[in-house]
Amino acid sequence: MFELSEDHEAFRSVVRDFARAEIAPHAEAWDRDHVFPIDTVLRMGELGFFGIVFPAAWGGGDGDFTSLCIAIEEIGAVDQSMGITLSAGVGLGANPIFRFGTDEQRSRWLPDLVAGRRLGAFGLTEPGGGSDAGATATKASWDQQAGEWVLNGAKAFITNSGTPITSIVTVTARTDDGICAFVVPSGSPGLVVEPPYRKLGWHASDTHGVVLDDCRVPADHLLGAPGAGFRNFLAILDDGRVAIAALALGCARACLSLATAYAGEREAFGGPIGRFQGVAFQLADLAVAVENATNLTYKAAWLRDAGRPITQAAAMAKLYATEAAVAASRVATQVFGGAGFIDDNPVARFYRDAKILEIGEGTSEIQRMVIARGLGLPVT
Amino acid sequence: MNVVVCVKQIPDPAIPGQLDPQTHFMKREGKLILDDSDAYGVEMALQLCTAAGGGEVTLVSMAPNNETSGLRTALAMGAAKAILVSDDSLAGSDALSTAKVLAKAIERAGEYDLVLAATESTDGYTGFVPEAIAALLGLPSVTFAKSINIEGGTVHVQRQTEAGYDEVTSPLPAVVSVTAGVVEPRYPSFKGIMAAKNKPVDTLTVSDLGLSGVGGAAAGQEITAVDPAPARQAGEIVTDEGEGHLKIVQFLETQKVI
Known about the structure:
The complex is a heterodimer of chains A (380) and B (258).
Chain A: H1 6-33, H2 38-46, H3 65-76, H4 80-100, H5 103-115, E1 119-123, E2 139-143, E3 148-159, E4 166-175, E5 178-185, E6 191-193, E7 207-218, E8 222-223, H6 229-265, E9 267-268, E10 271-272, H7 277-305, H8 311-336, H9 346-354, H10 364-374
Parallel strand pairs in A: 1-4
Antiparallel strand pairs in A: 2-3, 3-7, 4-5, 5-8, 6-7, 9-10
Helix pairs in contact in A: 1-3, 3-4, 3-6, 4-5, 4-6, 6-7, 6-8, 6-9, 7-8, 8-9, 8-10
Chain B: E1 3-6, E2 9-11, E3 32-34, H1 36-52, E4 57-62, H2 69-77, E5 81-85, H3 95-107, E6 114-118, H4 129-137, E7 141-151, E8 154-160, E9 165-171, E10 174-178, H5 190-196, E11 201-204, H6 244-254
Parallel strand pairs in B: 1-4, 1-6, 4-5, 5-11, 6-10, 7-10
Antiparallel strand pairs in B: 2-3, 7-8, 8-9
Helix pairs in contact in B: 2-5, 3-4
């Protein structure tokens, strides 16, 4: 009950080997130079990481959500940017097309996304409103004469929206029938992908603002039932929250491991600093946090694989694991002292990368609201 | 083009190993993994099949406790099936016994054009099994391959030597041992790992193979003692008096580095 299956562990060891040999040696340079390593992302695709949860009929691996979480955790343990690239590519790029697309839409976009040859992005957040996704201001109007939707508005912080292999950006927009989702192919006239943000962390992940300026898409680019866009996206977010919990777990675990090793070898006052309770007890607390984050994350993934409701479990896992990651990266940086403040040290990178985990895919405040509502409290 | 690859499943080198104090054999109680040095042979075999436009790779292995973890890794890379010989009586086998068992298992692999093996295992290092298999099967043996090409019924091998390499050709079928670095082993894909679960592993005992006179009881060699490796001696310090470079060259020559 408290361990993953042999198959899961076999897959974990393959992802770990790949992450350590093919990603870890380059993570610092990609971070420093703000490089999106397209060849590595394509190799992740060849190994089937982007297709794990999708049916073989679409080129997927027929695997479970737990396996995807394992891949995100292991890659995230060496490079958070590559972890979010995978998480967003699957959860926000391919999954909406798979869950809400018609077979025609699926066959048009899904095979390349599942194979990791192309990436999809998802635009929900807007410059004027983050957590208040229901207040979407982007508008879609129907041009009867042209038989096209005309999109106008702006989306903010869109992962994977501007890579050389991005094929689609799915956006939510308000129509007369409520909020709908539209698939906007890269290169569509009126789709403006803004220059990349200057971010605190996630330097090797591709993030842009996206402007829709009289952007036209054909009628068959409406994704899902008219007016179901908002509800659909909330459903997708639950999965995404567990995936971010797995990413945060990778970060926390790596920080604990790096700091523990350093505390054992760094000498001060005649011996390793790990003999001081001020250091050792912080690492003991982190070990408990990593254990808790592991259990919450894989419990949520297990519920998802069992087809059970996960809204509460996903919010708890996301809230706890991301706050554990922020704490772990702070403690690890402190244990490393001045060396932890130097950018080529992995803990410095994890420290910068961790903060966004408490914000993206629902802030910690939103998770607490979801959990409190689950208690029956009338939280607003 | 069908290729048989001999693979060994060994204790994880990342976990410190232990020797049995009585027999001096390595303890093999935990989970075993595919010997890294065998991943090269598996990759080479898969590439040769692809180049030939078809055929399949069959694994043969001898391991205790019906252990298949390491075989699953090689099956996930793309091998089609495996033959595993697992028998309590094989504990303590010497290299000749191992070769006899593997040679018999290879005869069960169906039609094959080539047998590949690593030059030596990472846990035992006897470096003798591939050649013994070739002798037992009555096949040509080519060792230390750093490159393999098949043309018709002939295998062309670049055989690693101290000075460079020899070009060796041999009729097929043959037994070829490959060095690490002959090819870059692939990572198993997620689909490969999932598919490996359902690939056939034929598990046999010594009597299934019709063999006798193998295993620990028949071992013609024993480990009489194990001593720690001697501590490294202090190096030689050469003071450069204008001809230091010559002394460096001289030293490298004696070490056969250049």
